[in-house]
Amino acid sequence: MFEAVIFDWDGTLADTSQVVVASFQKALSDIHCKISGEFIERRIGIGSKETFREILQASKMRFDETLIKSLAEKKIQTEIKLSGDVKLFDGSLELLESLQGKLKLGLASMNDREVIDHMLKTTNTQRFFDATLTANDISNSKPDPEILFKCALKLGTRPERCVVVEDSIFGVGAAKNARMSCIAVQTGIYSRTELVNAGADLIVSSLTKKEAILCFAKIDL
Fold this sequence. Notes:
Elements: E1 4-7, E2 14-15, H1 17-29, H2 37-41, H3 48-58, H4 65-81, E3 87-88, H5 92-99, E4 104-108, H6 113-122, E5 131-133, H7 146-155, E6 162-166, H8 169-177, E7 181-185, H9 192-198, E8 202-204, H10 210-216
Parallel strand pairs: 1-4, 1-6, 4-5, 6-7, 7-8
Antiparallel strand pairs: 2-3
Helix pairs in contact: 1-4, 3-4, 4-6
């Protein structure tokens, strides 16, 4: 029997891809580095600093951790400024409301704490979560399971009693590495085949498929 559901934020509960891409590109413009939006989108979920490292490596630009930290800070500030453009996906609120009080709810995002706290406040969704973990709380990025293990610990439950809801192959991989069940939602950039290959136990087209999600989580409709 499941005791908790752990959600991702970017691309899962909230449609943030355009804002995230724009925030990365704005920071990169200060060092005259250009990268495609798709390159960035396919790395949402591994954390800002790791994404910047991969971008600069791919661009064959020299960097050190001081530069990475500076870029990440600029990205955070731009993302907060653009947060008014972020909308919850259809079905997000309805699903959270259906789960609240029946299972413990966690949020495990590889975005930065400052961004997530701001987004939760502006969307009035902080009220749903019993535990919120971000990139600032861990040392290893998804698909490493660290963030999910820590979230389960804060929720007071065991990994095998958790269901993870994710949109990226990194998040699905983290769930499987944590020995957690995983529902993948096709609201990100990844194909059904990629999500299947990553190990998703259930794939839904969107969070409006509430019945399928609640059935998987063994919640009475």
